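Chapter summary example.
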Amino acid sequence: MIAISCKNDGGRRFRRNCVLGAAVLATLAVSFNIGPAMADSQSDAQATTEQVATKLTTARPYPLSAMNDSSERTNLTERLLRMNDPNKIGYVTLLTQNGQVLASFTIKGKVSSTGSQLTNTQNIESAYSNSAVAVDSMGDDGSYGPEEGGDNGIFFFTTAGVLIEYNGLWSYSDAPQVITTAPIVVLPMNSQPTSTAHILGSQPALPVAPQQ
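The structure predicted for these 212 residues follows.
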């Protein structure tokens, strides 16, 4: 039996991997000559699903005329615009698995995933003349494999520019959070990073116009 396991990492990578997985499965189905019984059961199940979908959408059609706005898109737009401000002040509380407050930070900018990168995460390569496969590409740091934070790793910068990475439970808000228990780890107020890349707070370089 051939199956696809799609692990949701919360964004486009999840959808892309699933689509690629489906394409690979289709290729394998042809290569291994999956029998007609399996194909028939799949077709029957799909036909039943389509019948149910048609029946339900007929009984309860989409209210197109009443959909003049979207609260979900409003929330997404507001969150995007807020979090895209590199100077935004936020508050992060790190938690242990049993709910103990590990540490609390005032941060500048947004919380990011250690798994995100500036370059593509996969490359499409031709394995044979009539097929293509997706392979993991080299990461931004020039290496292959997962980041040090794993699937749940996050990182952010404090208002002093100190880089913090964590791979446990955490909470974020853009208003101060009231901490009712003493944190296990406390970062001194005068803490400074050991080095910086001088990127935080700087403006992106403008493209140079080609000379005539």
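To summarize the output: The two ends are 62 Å apart (CA to CA).
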